[in-house]
Structure prediction request, 59 residues.
Amino acid sequence: MNPVFKDQLKQWKKQHEINSPETKKQKKKETFSTRDLEYLMGTRKPRYQRHNGAIRQRG
Prediction:
């Protein structure tokens, strides 16, 4: 790469980093309660099983 071109590229990067601070925003961490996590995993849903050919709800 041409040394002059490298210098121009460095200057361009510096100028555009200053003008766009929006790119470095931090994402908020989403915290879930244990009940929310259990619902997402499917442990809070009713479970069904087959017993002698009939479908019954499991405890």
